[in-house]
Write a structure and sequence with these properties.
By secondary structure, this protein is mostly helical. The protein has 7 helices and 5 strands; from the N terminus they run H-H-E-H-H-E-E-H-H-E-E-H. Strand 2 and strand 3 (about 75-80) form a beta hairpin. The longest helix has 22 residues, at about 85-105.
């Protein structure tokens, strides 16, 4: 897995690199799912609050994100994508899918089914349950033995 992930990343990274730094892209992709506050973003990226604030300021200056007051607590500032950036992310997504489809088009239907089944297992293993603040049961079992 450690060998294949960089190969996949390289196959789609050209679509990202011409637009922004990959770490910015990851942040923007996260914000495409829902708005988040600075603390959440800093924690999810493993950086300090001042570092995340600086990154958001850069993205804000580029017109990719905006700060909006939280509807639940006006003291909290939420970060959301601008509508223009949503369109850019959708285009990057489409181009990345086209690139991956081109790579996979040489596989037989049976091979594609095998790849899909493997990806579904990996997704289940690495998907975080936000409400619980922990990894899926598969990763919980792995990390329990590490304590």
């Amino acid at each position: 897995m450690l060998g294949i992930v960089p190969l996949i990343t390289r196959a789609i990274s050209a679509e990202v690199r011409h637009r922004t730094h990959p770490s910015h892209f990851h942040l923007l992709a996260m914000l495409s799912h829902r708005t988040r506050n600075l603390s959440e973003l800093a924690e999810l990226h493993g950086v300090s609050l001042p570092s995340m604030s600086s990154t958001i300021r850069t993205l804000e200056e580029r017109g990719w994100v905006r700060r909006v007051p939280s509807e639940q607590d006006r003291r909290v500032v939420m970060i959301e994508l601008t509508s223009g950036e949503r369109a850019v992310l959708a285009e990057i997504q489409r181009r990345s899918e086209d690139r991956l489809a081109g790579v996979l088009e040489g596989l037989s239907p049976e091979e594609l089914e095998t790849v899909l089944a493997g990806l579904e297992l990996l997704e289940a293993a690495f998907t975080f349950r936000e409400e619980a603040g922990c990894a899926s049961p598969i990763l919980e079992n792995i990390t329990e033995g590490a304590d």
